[in-house]
Design brief:
Helix content is 1%, strand content 57%.
Length: 294
């Protein structure tokens, strides 16, 4: 898979005198930069789980250290079982540390549920499938359950009576959003999983933010001023005909401009105070900078 080169800049005015909470952190599905841990699985790894009769064979498992700190955080698994005309298959993702690690929830599958006197509980939580450039941040619904399904089937007498696949094997999609909640910040990451079919899945790559602020690296190829700003900011860069994106602190895209000139302006007058992220894309180079609006 082709790796994209990223450069990250962080202005000194942002580093001095301001405290930013962990909700400002985000990562874009399918994207990574030099302040992230990125792992490209070469070759892509496909696993098929067992589906045997009346046995407890171990599942096919792929283990993931999402942030590269030497500690396993999540694992994908596939397993099936059948007996007496009934059976089931499951592909799911689970966390090794349910107190700190979470997986983004997509929806409840309504096929299996339990009634109580006052409530109904659905048994299958399906992991959310994100497309490239979808924001992974605190705005997603995060599950504290130990595991979430990607796909499953339940059948009786060779006829499926319940089945679900939250991952439609759409080439732009199939990114699982995960996060690690730490005392001082929250690390967000993604895992790309494709070819999800019955008991087979393929893991391609994954990435995670390393720290909240990331790598502090100045890049003279782009200038943004004034910072901090109370209104709008000017951008000067050595590039021409580049793509410009601006995101707020929750990862919501506010500006998208194609074929931008060397000098341009970002209008932030109507936006609230806070941290904003500017991303410039030119061919295989991506520059990301953070700016502060007071």
């Amino acid at each position: 898979m082709k790796n994209i080169i990223f450069y990250v800049g962080l202005t000194a005015s942002l580093l001095i005198g301001y405290s930013i909470d962990s909700h400002s952190q985000f990562i874009l599905a399918g994207q990574h930069n030099s302040s992230n841990y990125f792992y490209d699985i070469i070759p892509d790894t496909s696993l098929t789980g067992p589906n045997n009769h009346a046995t407890s064979d171990p599942p096919a498992v792929y283990r993931i250290d999402i942030n590269g700190d030497g500690v396993l955080d999540f694992y994908l698994y596939a397993v099936g079982f059948w007996s007496n005309g009934m059976g089931n298959t499951t592909i799911a993702i689970k966390s090794y540390d349910t107190s700190n690690n979470q997986i983004a929830y997509g929806y409840y599958d309504t096929c299996y549920y339990v009634y109580t006197d006052t409530s109904i509980y659905f048994l299958h939580e399906i992991a959310k499938s994100l497309e490239v450039n979808d924001s992974i941040n605190n705005k997603l619904e995060w599950s504290n359950n130990i595991g979430l399904y990607l796909a499953y089937t339940n059948w009786m007498l060779m006829v499926a009576n319940c089945e679900g696949n939250g991952f439609s094997n759409d080439p732009p999609g199939n990114h699982i959003a995960v996060r690690i909640c730490q005392p001082n910040d929250t690390l967000y990451g993604w895992i790309k999983v494709t070819n999800i079919n019955y008991l087979t899945f393929t893991v391609q790559e994954f990435a995670c933010s390393k720290t909240f602020l990331g790598i502090e690296e100045q890049d003279e190829s782009i200038k943004i001023f004034p910072i901090p700003t109370h209104n709008n900011v000017e951008i000067e860069t050595r590039f021409s005909d580049y793509d410009l994106f601006v995101y707020n602190q929750d990862g919501l895209e506010l500006v998208k401009k194609k074929n931008t000139s060397r000098k341009t302006q970002i209008q932030l007058g109507n936006q609230p105070a806070g941290v904003y992220v500017v991303k410039i894309v030119k061919d295989n180079t991506v520059i990301v900078k953070k700016i502060l609006k007071q």
